[in-house]
Amino acid sequence: MTINNSQPTEAAMKRIQIFDTTLRDGEQSPGASLDPEQKIVIARQLAKLGVDVIEPGFAISSPGDFAAVQQISRELQTVEIAGFARAIKADIDAAIKATQDAARRRLHIFISSSDIHLDFQLKKSRDQVVQIARDMVAYGKQFVPEIEFSAMDSSRAGREFVIELVEAVIAEGATVINLPDTLGYAMPEEYGEMFRTVRKHARGGDSVRYSAHCHNDLGLAVANSLAAIQAGATQIEVTLNGVGERAGNCSLEELVMAIETRKSFMQAETGIVTSEIYEASRMVSRAMNFPIAFNKPIVGRNAFQHESGIHQDGLLKNRNTYEIMDPEAMGIPRSMIVLGKHSGRHAIKHRLAEYGITPDDAQLLDVYTRFKERADELKLVPDDVLIRLASESTQQQHDPYTLIDLQVLAGTQRSRIASVTIKERGSEDEKTYTGSGTGPLEAVIHCIQQAIPQAAEFEDLELHSLSTGEDARGEAVVSILHEGRRFRGTAIHNDIILAAAQAYVGACNQMILSGAADQPAADQDAV
């Protein structure tokens, strides 16, 4: 038997369109509501990301949504805009009006197809639904040549009726047929079979394009979408971070990277600019106030981090031993080593080397022994603690700046006032700086920025509870940005403001020790 391992040619690759509905279906997640300006900012990032189609909202649902759809249609002239509408004239009119300034647009009309929806929600017969679908597609076709029709809940509908419905809308001019797994009910094999059956048996079925819209109730949204591609779909409807109703939609980043990583198997490709994935993910997470699960594929905090000593050792020798993707190609900061009780000496040595600290063998053994003791206590050993342990073992201060003391005065009717005391490496003096801000953290950051002249832009803060009760400890993860490079500092403390301050100083120290910034003398505005 001959096994063909040759790579497919570019011409053989099927181009998959990415239809992003983060701003419509994604926003339907409880608590995920976005204001018009947030939608516009995210839509700009989606355009940079390279999505083919943006569904900016449900124009008839509110004046704010109408305004956002209208503004996005006017501004983003390089992306196709989808106007979303129920099979109702008023919805279609609103969608047409809101998208009229788009350079390229389509009308996206949907109606239910499963008996349970027809009987209990629409309270209409199959014949009535077919006639409504036919009439509304014909009505929309007067205004827009590109019509996408969605047979909602088609994975739970009878195949014969789905075919009848699809035939009717194709006859009236529908150009894209979407067969949604609205409840995330289908298995990949049966979802793919539905596409093959409709394409084969619906009259005109080979004259239109097919789209998949999968929900994640059983965790199969990406698997079902891939099955649809293998069955002939050339468009997949997705959301960033998989946001959406209930358990969400097919995740853009997971689908795109599955196709990219297994391109030769899938015989498919997308036009997504993968280096923009991480920024787009973070933007949506912040705007919706939806934290990303640590173990979320692709963009989760742990997706490219390794604590196991065996994994860390292999990874440091060759990244491909325990990673199948390059996180930096997706714009994800390279922070692959997480230090905990399972970490080995190789990982500790590697992390210290990132700070320019190179202990000898005896000192490294001492650091390792101290580290193991702290790891049992802290679970994860943040960088500032590791540097402190290295300083104890080598009997010299390694970090350029050390936070000695912090005080914050807060109140309900006044600005927050803070003071921090900082010690600079090589100096016996401790200097105190004061600052104010609308919040205690802002006041503290202003103080630290006086103390550390080259302190970089405070980009992001993550806070995580590590325990419960009155003595609960929190972990702060601070990201800073310096000339396009991102550095992260971590710290753990009962006082979350102090933890954030230590993490910020730690990130600045990492930046300085990495050589990304020169280290001038401290500012003279200390008190």
Please describe what this structure looks like.
- With 527 residues, the protein is of the alpha/beta class.
- The protein has 3 domains: 12-288, Alpha-Beta Barrel (TIM Barrel), CATH 3.20.20; 309-393, Recoverin, domain 1 (Orthogonal Bundle); 401-513, Double Stranded RNA Binding Domain, CATH 3.30.160.
- The chain is 39% helix and 18% strand.
- β11 and β12 (416-424) form a beta hairpin.
- The protein is elongated, with a radius of gyration of 27 Å.
- Mean pLDDT is 90; it is low at 519-527.
- This is 2-isopropylmalate synthase.
- It holds the Pfam family HMGL-like.
- GO terms for molecular function: 2-isopropylmalate synthase activity; metal ion binding.
- Pathway: Amino-acid biosynthesis; L-leucine biosynthesis; L-leucine from 3-methyl-2-oxobutanoate: step 1/4.
What's a quick, concise take on this entry?
The protein has 527 residues and is an alpha/beta fold. Helices cover 39% and strands 18% of the residues.
- Beta-strand percentage range: 15-25%
Q: What is the CATH superfamily classification of the largest domain?
A: Aldolase class I
Structural class: alpha/beta
The number of strands is 16
| Largest sheet: number of strands, sense, barrel closure | 8 strands, parallel, barrel
Uncertain residue ranges: 519-527
CATH class of the largest domain: Alpha Beta
End-to-end distance: 81 Å
The CATH architecture of the largest domain can be named as Alpha-Beta Barrel
So what's the overall shape?
elongated
Q: Please give the count of helices.
A: 17
Task: Give the neighbour order of strands across the main sheet.
Answer: 2-3-4-5-6-7-8-9
Mean pLDDT: 90
Supply Rg. 27 Å
Number of domains: 3
CATH topology of the largest domain: TIM Barrel
What share of the residues lie within helices?
Answer: 25-40%
